[in-house]
Design brief:
Order of helices and strands: HEHHHEEEEHEEH
Distance between the termini: 31 Å
Strand order of the largest sheet: 1-2-3-4
Largest sheet: 4 strands, antiparallel
CATH superfamily of the largest domain: Pleckstrin-homology domain (PH domain)/Phosphotyrosine-binding domain (PTB)
CATH class of the largest domain: Mainly Beta
Strand content: 25-35%
CATH topology of the largest domain: PH-domain like
Number of helices: 6
Shape: elongated
Helix content: 40-55%
CATH architecture of the largest domain: Roll
Number of domains: 2
Number of strands: 7
Length: 158
């Protein structure tokens, strides 16, 4: 059972649950080494070509050490729209971060995605409302999450 399911209020139901993409696990084991190996700004001339395999292997080994943290984040991250609030949890190996905002406080929201984030279908959502703003980094499927959140806000206003 997830953290959100264990902590729902009386009469509160889950309307939408965002799902993480398994592609985010590729960052520590493949994409990070490729990025480091082919970063053309680091060296000039023939050394750049010679050091590509060495840099790839070094960063692949580093990526293997990041993999348990990435797996824990993938499994422990959750984004949920309920009948009363929006909840985002991010659990690592040693920490848990829970962000939530009541639907009645949501005035507007903004979705930000880089090119890589669009490929892996995640992004950052900022909720604007009341006296504070709330940022949900690494939100899975942010466009659908935005649509579901706004639908829940409009349902609550009825």
């Amino acid at each position: 059972m997830s953290w959100v399911d264990e902590n729902l209020g009386a009469g509160e139901e889950v309307l939408y649950r965002g799902k993480n993409s398994i592609i985010i696990l590729l960052w520590p084991i493949l994409l990070m080494p490729l990025h480091a190996a082919f970063d053309l700004r680091t060296e000039a001339g023939i050394w750049r070509v010679i050091t590509i395999p060495i840099r790839f292997l070094i960063w692949a080994v580093i990526g293997v050490f990041y993999l348990p943290s990435a797996i824990a984040s993938f499994v422990g991250s959750e984004a949920v729209v309920t009948t009363h609030r929006v909840i985002g949890t991010n659990k690592g190996l040693l920490t848990r971060k829970v962000l939530e905002i009541n639907l009645s406080n949501v005035e507007s929201l903004q979705v930000r995605q880089s090119i890589f984030e669009r490929i892996v279908n995640k992004g950052e959502i900022t909720f604007y409302g009341g006296s504070h703003d709330l940022v949900f980094p690494d939100m899975p499927n942010p466009a659908e999450f935005r649509r579901q959140t706004m639908a829940a806000v409009s349902r609550q206003g009825d």
